[in-house]
Structure prediction request, 284 residues.
Amino acid sequence: MLHGMKGRKRMKQKRIAVINDFSGFGRCSMMVSVPIISAMKIQCCGLPTAILSNHTGYKDFFFDDYTDNMREYYEKWKKLELHFDGIYTGFLGSVRQVGIVEGFIEEFADRDTRIIVDPVMGDNGRRYATIGDNLCREIRKLLPLSSIITPNLTEACLLAGIEYREIGADEEELRALAVKLSRCGAGNIVITGISDGNDICDFVWQENGRYELLRQPCTGSAHAGTGDVFASIIAADAVNGVDFPDSVKRAASFVGRAIALSDMMEVPSQDGVCFEEILGELAK
Prediction:
């Protein structure tokens, strides 16, 4: 027994399951989530959707689709009788994987489990190559299961089934978009990375209908994996009971500082952001 623990109530460490791809190099997806969620004092457990040597922003990469192994993989977790305080989903590469995620949530979530859906579907008005109409429709089915969704503007339009257009920081337009997502079943929503002059904005919609536009100065150039950093902080904060708008502010501020530091250190954009340099801030 640990010194001083006798007679005290046993502390239970919280646990998040992260369903995402594993890219060995490039600071994205699960390789971002594990250190960030762990730094925020939560056990991070990974269920891979694909294994990559490095993310697809590089010219050449190894890719292994993990769809056929996912159910067998998590069946072993069932035998261990694991429980998760949070489930965070990221890149899903096929219609089948969406069904597997639905099954996972049914098996492992209870009424108190926080479900964070980061719908990795596209950016800058374009879908990613793997995202067809059928997969868009299937990912939309995760919205009623979610506690929080973290789409960028492109992904928000895809989920809402509307044509993408640059709406900038127009609060009424963003509110209308959030209402459409809410009617699709989403609860708390943050539409991320909205450019407005020299600012980057995040539009926060809460399930009680309150909303606000949060902005901060743009701190540097675009880097891969910043959405994964952002969503990982949101997921850990949700499990830790942090107020949603406060969590968005913290995540945006952390990403901004990581971008500025990465530019100062001349980190190539495809290599992600050097969040490791300031990771200790999240443990406070």
